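Final report, section 2: Outcomes. Of the targets proposed, Integral membrane protein is the one most frequently requested by collaborating groups, and we therefore present its record in full.
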Amino acid sequence: MAVQEARQGADAGAHAGGCTCGDCPHGAREGHRRAVAEFLVKRDEFAAGQGLPAAVAHSASASRQWVSEELTQSAELVAERGRVEGEAWLARLWSRTAYTVWAGVVVLLLVQALTAIGAGWTAARTAGLLAALVTAGALTAASWFHRARGGALAPVIGEDNRLSTSRAVAVAWVLFVAYAVLVLVGRLAAASDPAERDTLISGLELARAAGAVTVLAVVCGIAVLVRRVVGLRVLGQRLQKVRADRPRAADLLTDDAGSGTFADIQYVVIGAVALLFAAVRLARRPDQLPDLPWGLAVVVLISAATYLAGKYAEGGRPVILSVVRAREAGDLDAPIRTGDDIEIRGAGFVPPGAQGAERLSRMTVRVGTVHVHVPLVPVTGGFSNPTDAVLTVPVPADVEPGRVEVQVITAAGVETNRYAIDVTD
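The predicted structure is given below as tokens.
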């Protein structure tokens, strides 16, 4: 598939390949797709030993360095096209969020119309529909003012350009509570009977919605606290973060590497179930804020605590455990000398979400006072160097013999511990 995409004719039109206008089918998305396909073809060809110039084919170290440089340049092009495609996608997202919001209003109208058959149209239904119109109008206006950052989704997009689970849950509860209050406001404005007005005002008392108010306070506090925790852990080099090209819906349930995480999944699922229960309660009792039972509220609080604990537990600083001389089959055992390859063993060298070639090419090893870029060694479907636990670099000729320290700098800019080795003449 990748070979076919990369080798398609150049007659696809003026927009094919490098166009980054973002407003046509052959725009930024097409340019990114073609760049990815061309990179995959080049990587697999190098992995099969093809495409090497004769000037470097005789030397294993020279060919490895040449291949790494070629892949790095190609990966930088892919990353640039990915950033452009992500910006274009965000610019188009605001209209999609607006359409989704108004589609929700239409669905609410249809549900109310169907359920009104036989029971009749009531003031509560009118108040609910008006509250939905006000909420949708506010979200549409917010989408317009933040159209360059994803429209209505801008508040739930984190600094790493991913959807934030804690912010998404908090925003959902804030919107629901605001909608519930608007429903009561609409009913209060239409009420003519003093007794009915007193009933509606008493429906806003804390005693009737203590569970829902507690959940709202906790999820909002979790959203603020998680942002602070993540920021401090990144600054303290205890958590590695790399920026994504664009947010995805799967970010709500996965970590930065795209793997599902228990803490995020249970927080979203339990929060959604509790929110659905509260919505049903509001539909059944539109004269007061939804009274979330304390049993269900405690379940949401436990889920929030589990999510916060997961944020404290994730990550960790990369560490070097050992450094040995890399030995190929047939080589004699010997000490480390300049020009030799060393194998650095440890953990956490590749941050989550940094498995792409453009991120891997940013990894650097400090050998003494010399910075060595980690070479990319392609294999079919990926790279054998660097990996999360092992990476191989040559000892440069500029390193003075004696005892020197080795330190790895990851793509996220986090430094490992220093590990001393002896370099001989």
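Residues 1-18 have pLDDT under 50 and may be disordered.
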